[in-house]
Amino acid sequence: MRIPRLALMAGALAGVLFAGTAHAATSSAPSYKPVLTKNKLYKTGKLGVTACEEPEVTSGTVDEAKIYFEAVMECLDKAWSPVVKKAGYRFSRPKLTVLTKVGEKMGPCGRFPAGAQAVYCPQVRSIYFLLSDNVVEEPSDLALMQVLAHEYGHHIQQLTGIMKAADVAILKNRSESRALEALRRTELQAQCLSASFVGRVWNSLGRPDTDWTILLKGSHNPVASLGVRNSGDETHASQASNKYWLERGFKAQSADVCNTWTAPSRRVY
Ligand SMILES: [Zn+2]
Q: How far is the CA of 17 from the centre of ligand 1 (A)?
């Protein structure tokens, strides 16, 4: 009995190794620029703030919603400014511009697209956030804080040179599937960065854990952030990939785990 069993085990192990190697060969990341793969952003430790006080929302007016999002922006500024400095880049806060209608102009970034909640315009370093009726009524919905943190994540990508290099990988790529993969890596990184903020301040928010688990289940549509992005299935990564990167960021409370540029392709589908 002894010999066949060992042989069987060896065979099984070889099979595993072979499968692993074969998989790695088809699924490893394409080679990207060092500013994407080895950015010092990934060696900055936990975010700089542990508490965020959300203003109470009672009246359901545009002014109140604005106050709410501006307060969250201040938390984001405090959380990210030491991180960006630690990574060796100059920090500046993004602007927050609120819009009340789809189609309103966003400086050089065209018109606010239907179906989006927020857009980051890198040229003017501004987040455009849509205050539609349902948002005004419920601005403290965790999903909205997360969307704001996601757009802020694009600002962090802008400050650290990631956005510029990502744009080249997206727009100058001859292969459409490679371009889309780079786009998904960009979006999933913003997801991970957003979750690292939410995770960092989580205990101060006094929210039930179900707020986060519901968000994890529903988050499969990172908001398109650059004018060129159209909505095809391949531009938005799968729910499984979104959940993976959100959970990573949330647990680590740090950008260190948000290097989507060296992750195997199967993690960004
Ligand atoms: Zn985005």
A: 37
- CA 26 – ligand 1 centroid, Å: 27
Neighbours of 210 (CB within 10 A): 9
CA of 3 to the centre of ligand 1 (A): 56
Backbone angles phi, psi at 11, to 5 degrees: -60, -45
Interval between CA 50 and ligand 1 midpoint (Å):
24
Closest CA to 162 of 195, 199, 192: 192
* Tokens describing residue 163: 């956005």
The single residue listed with the structure tokens 């085990």 is 9
Q: Distance from the CA of 123 to the center of ligand 1, in angstroms?
A: 15
Residue 104 CA to ligand 1 centre (angstroms): 19
Cα–Cα distance list, 40 to 105, 110, 119, 264, 268 (Å): 35, 32, 25, 20, 21
| Ligand 1: centre distance to CA 236 (Å) | 9
Reply yes or no on whether the pLDDT at 9 is more than 70: no
The whole-model pTM stands at 0.86
Contact (Cβ atoms closer than 8 angstroms) between residue 75 and residue 58: no
Cα 151 to averaged position of ligand 1 atoms, centre (Å): 6
Which helix H or strand E contains 158, and what residues bound it? helix 142-159
**Ramachandran bin of 105, using left for φ above 0, alpha for ψ from -120 to 50, beta for the remaining angles:** beta
Cβ 140 vs Cβ 206: under 8 Å: no
Task: Single out the residue of 208, 182, 191, 122 nearest to residue 153, CA to CA.
Answer: 191
Q: What six digits make up the tokens of 143?
A: 């999903």
Per residue in 135-167, pLDDT (tens digit) is 999 999 999 999 999 999 999 999 999 999 999
